[in-house]
Amino acid sequence: MKFYNTLTNKVDEFHEIDKGKIGLYTCGPTVYDYAHIGNFRSYIVEDLVKRYFLYRGYNVNHVMNITDIDDKTIRKSNQMGVSLNEVTAIYIKAFLEDVETLNIVKADVYPRATEHINEMLTLIDKLMEKGFAYTKDNSVYFSIAKFPEYGKLANISRENLKTGVSVDSDEYEKDDVTDFVLWKGKKEEEPFWSSEKYGEGRPGWHIECSAMSSKYLGDHFDIHMGGVDNIFPHHENEIAQSQCATGEQFVNYWIHCQHLVVDNQKMSKSLGNFYTLRDILDKGFDPMEIRYLLISSHYRKMLNFSFDGLLQARQALKRINDFIFTLNGLNPAEGETVAITTLLNESEAHFQSDMDDDFNISGALGVFFDFIYQINLKLQELKKQDIKNILDFINRIDSVIGVLKQKEEKMLDAEIEEKIKQRQEARKEKNFKLADAIRDELKSKGILLIDTPDGVRWKYE
Ligand SMILES: [Zn+2]
Question: What CATH architecture does domain 2-257 belong to?
Fold first, then answer.
């Protein structure tokens, strides 16, 4: 497997630190509002990468932090006039619901910043002891001049560093490459923690990811992911903090996902093209359509989000679901066809070689749809074992792309059959009201009834 590593600026062959295991850290949400579809593009790309590693047989230990203390969360809690904890609880719950809605595989742990203040202070101690940090006006800053590799990830040349100048804000631009804050001295109307050495205050944003990643994944781990907007300053600062504290390499591979634009424009509230996941669901789109659109173009390309794109995603999903429906409705003879098995093996190998090549999802999806096309031409030749093999193949592909309806959401097949039986009986007794009610109930669960000469069959819409 190979993929683009922001740290080395090239496509690198992947070698894990511990055979068969991967430590994966992804920067999580700042819980001051509902996550928007731009955020979800990153989370879904991370999910695709993680699912692909799982498909390839790796054991993935995935940590995603939750930023529940920073300038934005504090501002929101003051605006709403409720405590920080109350605000963040609302949006943590919403985020985890959205993760489930989009069929994202849950992280192994979602550590919260406010529950790791001691770990952050210990890390700050180390940086102070080793001379990489200094105190000024009740705050603690990291001295970028002390770390010769500063700027490597974001490709910043050393002459652009404003050494000795310090900035308190967590987010700043590339033309402001200054010493950044590790611990912010207490301010009015801000929550604070007490530190024996640095007094009352709160942590900076960057230190939380360094502290929590090493706690759950060790000082040196395999892969760190995030959006391109995280490269500078956030990830650059994480590297500086972690490597200066431990004296060793922090992360081997950095993967960054490109931005999302809406109708070729930057998403912004003032342009009226700013969407949370919930906004799009309210317009009647299915979560799987959104997921499909968000994974279907390469992670290093800008994704143009449009409602037209969602309708195309709907068509693509319909092709897969119709194909499964057709396969389940065939009445095949026993046996297995060599040509079909060969086509399956070739298609899966091709799918893998595309994904192995910097997660070339468009190529991989192309292989999958071509496979569906080929099989559709040979439906009459299929034998029983062929169909089982094809359905298993689809399940393996879907373990990576995750766009088919989730099983746990579905009614059990037996339950559906039972409902259909009840409806048939109601119709026999001319109780059409009940029959319609049963049909509507199934429809509300996305199950469509189809009358065929062999009786009633059903499928997911
Ligand atoms: Zn982070």
Answer: 3-Layer(aba) Sandwich (3.40)
